[in-house]
Amino acid sequence: MTFELMQLNYPYDALEPDIDAKTMEIHHSKHHQGYVNKLNKALEGLNEVPLDLESLLKHLDELPEEKRTAVRNNGGGVYNHNLFFGALKQNVILDETSTLAKAINDTFGSFDSFKETFSDAAKGRFGSGWAWLILTDKGNLKITSTPNQDTPLQMGTPILGIDVWEHAYYLNYQNRRPEYIEHFFNVIDWDIIQQRYENALKSSTQ
User: Fold this and answer.
1) Residue 187 near residue 89, CB atoms below 8 Å
2) How many whole angstroms separate alpha carbon 190 and alpha carbon 100?
3) Domains and their CATH numbers in the chain
4) Which end of the chain is more exposed for a tag (fewer CB within 10 A), N or C?
5) Quick one: which of 141, 134, 138, 174 has its CA closest to 157?
6) Based on the number of CB atoms within 10 Å of its own CB, is 70 exposed (0-12), middle (13-18) or buried (19 or more)?
7) In angstroms, how far is CA 153 from the centroid of its own chain?
8) Which of 28, 177, 203, 184 is nearest to 92 (CA)?
9) Which strand (E) or helix (H) includes residue 161?
10) Is 167 exposed, middle or buried (0-12, 13-18, 19+ CB in 10 A)?
11) 77: part of which helix (H) or strand (E)?
């Protein structure tokens, strides 16, 4: 099968001033598209490939050894960016009465404490990579990070992810990653994150 670039449901300038239009355009149309192209190239010649990207990444050991690294890197790049771009929107506040808000408070003590811990994970990721809020297989929220384009799928279901590769912020923030992370919290679509949490919670209890 052939994977395609996820289309955004908002224009590139929709997140300004927190994330500028030029960064969004390059990030999506060049970097994200590049991972899609390289993933499809890596899958050429394979007869049986899972239709679901998540299943593909969870079963890399079933691929020919010479294909695994390319699929891991580029498939991870597609998967991670789908999650990232799919949960961006301005002026969406987490409903304090939602199940996710309650789980965040129960796990981290408060939303501010969660934000600080998540931000520290993003700031502390050496080099390129991601910070994540995931739901573990036991149904617990956890903050973690991964290098490069590795996914957190072996640890749980990703709910929220921030891209801390320099291409995600360098045009506007240069080397000021903490400032980018602070502004990222202004463009999280908490309605989407809440839905992801509910879906992951249902899966973990089945």
Assistant:
1) yes
2) 9
3) 20-85 (1.10.287.990), 99-204 (3.55.40.20)
4) C
5) 134
6) middle
7) 11
8) 184
9) strand 157-163
10) middle
11) helix 65-85
Cβ neighbours, 10 Å, residue 161? 24
Rounded to whole angstroms, the Cα distance separating 186 from 90 reads 6
- Residue 65 is encoded by which pair of tokens? 């050894």
Give pLDDT tens digits for 156-193. 999 999 999 999 999 999 999 999 999 999 999 999 99
Predicted confidence (pLDDT) per residue in 79-124, tens digit: 999 999 999 999 999 999 999 999 999 999 999 999 999 999 999 9
The answer, as to whether pTM is greater than 0.90, is yes
Gap between the Cα atoms of 46 and 60, Å rounded:
13
